[in-house]
Write a structure and sequence with these properties.
Number of strands of chain A: 10
GO biological process, one term (chain C): transmembrane transport
Number of strands of chain B: 0
Pfam families (chain C): BPD_transp_1
Chains: A alpha/beta, B mainly alpha, C mainly alpha
Oligomer: heterotrimer
Number of helices of chain B: 11
CATH superfamily of one domain in chain B: MetI-like
Number of helices of chain A: 8
Bound molecules: adenosine-5'-triphosphate, magnesium ion
Structural class of chain A: alpha/beta
Organism (chain C): Limobrevibacterium gyesilva
Strand content of chain B: under 5%
Strand content of chain A: 15-25%
Shape of chain A: globular
Structural class of chain B: mainly alpha
Largest sheet of chain A: 6 strands, mixed
Distance between the termini of chain A: 31 Å
Protein name (chain C): ABC transporter permease
CATH class of one domain in chain B: Mainly Alpha
Strand order of the largest sheet of chain A: 6-7-8-3-9-10
Family (chain C): Belongs to the binding-protein-dependent transport system permease family.
Amino acid sequence: MIRLDRVSKTYTRAGGGEPVRALSEISADIADGAFVTIVGPSGCGKSTLLYIVGGFVPASGGAVLVEGKPIAGPGPDRGPVFQEFALFPWKTVRQNIRFGLAEQNVPRAEADRRVDELLDLVHLRQYAALYPKELSGGMKQRVAIARTLAYRPRTLLMDEPFGALDAHTRAKLQDELLQIWERERKTVLFITHGVDEAVYLSDRILVMSAAPGAIKADIAVDLPRPRRREELLRHPRYQELVIEIGRMMDTTA
Amino acid sequence: MILRALRSCYSVLLLLAAWELFARSGMVPRTLLPPVSLVLQRTAIALATDTFVADLATTLFRLLAGLALAVGLGIALGVISAQTRAGRAIFEPLVRVLGPLPKIALFPVLLLTLGFDNTPRIVLVLIDAIFPVMLAAHYAARAVDEKLIWSARAAGTSPTGCVLRVILPAAMPQILTGIRVAAVIACVVVFLSEMVQPGDGLGDQMIRAARAFRSVDMFVPIVVISGLGFILDTLLALVRRRALGWAG
Amino acid sequence: MIRFGPLIVLAALLALWQAAGMAMRVETLPTPLAVLPELWALFASGEIWGDLRASLYRLAAGFVLALATGVPLGILCGRSAAVRGFVSPLLALFYPVPKAALIPILMLWLGAGDLSKITIIYLSVTLPIVYHGQQGAAAVEEKLVWSARAMGTGRAGVLLRIILPASLPELLLGVRVAIVIGLIVMISSEMIVRQNGLGYDIFNAMDMAQYRLTYAVIVVVAVLGFVLDATFERLRRRLTFWAPERQDQLPTGA
Ligand SMILES: Nc1ncnc2c1ncn2[C@@H]1O[C@H](COP(=O)(O)OP(=O)(O)OP(=O)(O)O)[C@@H](O)[C@H]1O
Ligand SMILES: [Mg+2]
């Protein structure tokens, strides 16, 4: 379990000037295997919160506890997937996916097997030898997800992973993500601007209010799984949730 | 292919032709301006002469030793200084003070403190050629996308591992550009050091020719050192293209 | 902190030099404190002024000529493929040539006076000015030119009032590099020819075993370099305050 215990963040700026209060006293418990999504207006501190959970940025107050222990920096138990993909441009698709395995000293043969498995999982077998600059946006995002899945983090931290993609690719990747999640039951902390995406994917949605960010609502998504898009879109509860959360977003912005 | 290459640098051919014709026209004495063909012919002969080749080897050794040190130290200092707040704070003022200083002015100090053989010349090349490498490494290392570093840290890479396996490769395109500039600087500086304080090397060949008013022989070392600079620059450009196909 | 950075660094370097001098205790590495009186005498006796003036005059003359010819040539290169096709290969040809080393040849042609030394500075300083002028002019946003043309600006007007100011940031970076290069060429050609100027003074003092004087002149050269660069940098920032700052461009020269 991941526990956020009154996490707050104030950015001080290097050249002096007003410090920015990004988060104020965020508390939440994220259960193992849950798919939790954070939505909120732009600039409310969603990314900041994710970076703090990842251990990339220190909190100014409060603590993040994993299994009861405060985190000390980044670790392979929490794997990030950034909106900007952040692939290593000097590595091929295969080498990118292999990176974490090499860092963990996984034996060569086993690492190769795992990479092949992931290439199949994200349907990139025939692109394994390409460099990131030769890939489309959707392919890059799939590589980024595979690279993180490779070292089997217990938790995935996903910051608007599908934000930069066209609607069709986004829908496809959402379904792929759900399939992976159904199979591996990782904890997912997911950030998005899309209310329908949030409802479609999650068990639980945290709605944040604008600066300094705080959790304004905590909504359980009581929709059946496994989810199928056509069925869900017609589901009255789905429509209710989308409208309800959409309204909340309008009033917080 | 060759034809196209020749056409793309027609101005150079024009210049050389003009030089040749002007020198042969009799309007200027041969001793002032020897024809290009003669200079090139004499260069070819020199390159087959033991004493000249020995001087060339001496120069090449100093040049490559200084350049290698500049590359190694420049990358290390540039990248390491970019990692800490103190390093970043010191870096710019340090470069603003030492950058505009004509390093050749320090050559006498190097001669006085390091002796009169290879060492002061190698160190001179080092302190001159290190700047473009160090600058490129420092600012490129600072500009590496932090998400790349975070991705590696999350995968279990140590901070040192990040410097070696993320920051260094990410900064490599700019560093190689810096090294190209450094290579040409190194050629120029080693030659000047041998002219300022002659003894041996290509620069010494030039000074001896100048003192004896052998005008053709004055052109030969210049042609050779410039050719060396050109070759190094081209080789490094090739390396950059080969090794950095990934860079967009 | 930012403004006083160079001063702090300077103090640290002087302290380092002092410590090295005190540790080595040799005549060939005097401490800055020992060099200071020499420096004072140099200026008090007026000895240095003549050489300083001679050096600076040649630098300035070469520079003015280079600006007058290099800027228009660079801008034309950036805007015309034909001009660029002619000039670029020549730039590439002369780029690796050690310009200061040409001084004996130029003296053969132009005599031992100022003319050969001004020419050598002119030749070496023009290169970066043309190169950066070309880069700047080539990168000017085409829409800017179109807008001006649509508003009725003529061809010459576009070059003068659109291209020139728009390429100014890059051009001035070239000038900054050129200042450092000019100084290097000035000093090294004076060291090669050994007639007069600061470069000559350094070696002359060394050959006469006046080591403190050697160091004093080197200090003068170092201060000259820093002052020229810092002064120009202030001017450059004032002229291009509107352009985004590029911090990877600090002074070094070939
Ligand atoms: N490195 C930083 N330094 C200073 N302030 C920052 C920094 N990063 C973020 N901020 C500020 O913190 C606040 C929250 O930023 P954050 O990126 O977390 O928002 P967000 O909710 O992810 O926004 P978006 O939906 O647009 O991605 C903003 O006001 C932002 O300006
Ligand atoms: Mg964000």
